[in-house]
Design goal:
Layout lengths: L6 H49 L13 H11 L4 H7 L2 H27 L30
InterPro entries: TatA/B/E, TatB
Family: Belongs to the TatB family.
Protein name: Sec-independent protein translocase protein TatB
């Protein structure tokens, strides 16, 4: 509950509570707060028990923490009935993209060499398809154009 409160912050809260409520009322206030927290916890546990009872025996291992999407996904990935770890480990996006890029670049060079031999006898009024695009470094990002976005 107080995982992210440090010792200095805790001392500050105690001093502040003594100043606000006074040393006479502080023990009574602490009792009231702890009693309220205890009642809220009891109410929450009874509500959870009622819900589990109403759901029936099919949901005997149901946990309310599973309703959190992160917990649900983590539990399903750890279960690995579908072989998701094997699929996730076997899928290398960078490798796949590099293969696609290489295939596209090799196709471009093949098509440009065949089009240059066929376009040499064409009329001068057509668009020249033999121009190769500028070669860029794969790690280099393209220039950013703020007007285009």
């Amino acid at each position: 509950m107080f995982n992210d409160i440090g010792p200095l912050e805790l001392v500050t809260l105690v001093v502040l509570a003594v100043l606000v409520f006074g040393p006479e009322k502080l023990p009574k206030m602490i009792q009231d707060v702890t009693r309220t927290i205890r009642k809220i916890r009891e109410f929450s546990e009874s509500a959870k028990a009622d819900i589990r009872e109403e759901l029936g025996p099919e949901f005997k291992d149901f946990e309310f923490e599973d309703l959190n999407p992160k917990t649900f996904i983590r539990k399903q990935l750890d279960n690995d009935e579908l072989g998701l770890k094997e699929i996730r480990n076997g899928f290398d996006l960078k490798k796949e993209m590099a293969e696609v890029t290489d295939a596209v670049h090799s196709r471009d060079t093949d098509s440009s060499s065949s089009s240059s031999s066929s376009s040499s006898g064409s009329s001068g009024g057509s668009i020249d398809m033999t121009k190769k695009p500028e070669k860029t470094d794969p790690d280099e990002r393209p220039p950013f154009d703020a007007d285009a976005t």
